[in-house]
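Long-time lurker. I teach an intro course on protein structure, and each term I like to show students one example going from raw sequence to a predicted 3D structure in token notation. This year I'd like something fresh instead of my usual example. Would anyone be willing to generate the tokens for the chain below so I can use it in lecture? Attribution to the forum is fine with me.
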Amino acid sequence: MSGEPTRPKSFDPVAQSASGKAGSVPEARQSAAEDIAAFVAKARAMSPHAPQARGRLIFALDATMSRQPTWDMACALQADMFREAATIGTLDIRLVYYRGLNECRASTWVSDTAHLARLMSGIACRGGNTQIGRVLSDARAEAVASGVRAIVFVGDAMEEPIDDLCARAGELGLLKVPAFMFQEGDDSTAERAFKEIARLTGGAWCRFDPGAAAQLRELLRAAAAYAAGGREALLRLSRTAGGAAGLLGQLR
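-- Reply from a regular --
Happy to contribute to a lecture. Here you go:
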């Protein structure tokens, strides 16, 4: 299947994947309502992107064993990102995930929801530690090679040296690639790390309640709007009855 995340024939778990190609990713060294409101406000303040360019969004997820319910939820909700982007411009998504023992993979750039759904539905979560550093390293490589407008990360834990993650996040900040860190639950270690990654990249952190599909849907739509059309697109979304403003009004 074109674009499916697979290992190279001679698998090296720390091998650098070529720009845009599927493969292994290099190894790295308040209330939900208020958090969502803060995320939208933070994203609005970011610099707008150049018009006419294709939006390129890295969609990264923790696929360790405890994450299967959220993985399934994200698989169902990813269509909303494409639908939102279609009202603004175009969107390409690169799926990145980690699971198991030293396994972190990335797809090619995908431009339609059916393709991404097929990729995600064929992936099962497996036990293992977080590998957020590899996600950030892949994002940096793609940003240098072909351009990336934003990263979305969905997870609930962080088990890596935070200073290493901060160094990689700082590099993304220099490249003007914001990371939108969406935290499920309230783990304090993850919160501290995710907030710092968001700060260093010029992105935003937001917590959502476990299993809250409606909250995650609005966050993904907002991130897609930003990737496809920048700050102005996100601002327009926030003013529509069915978009971010509608959710925020409902949760206040």
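Some talking points for your students: Helices lie at 32-44, 68-86, 113-121, 132-145, 162-174, 188-201, 213-238, 244-251. Strands lie at 23-24, 55-62, 91-99, 103-110, 150-155, 179-184, 204-208.
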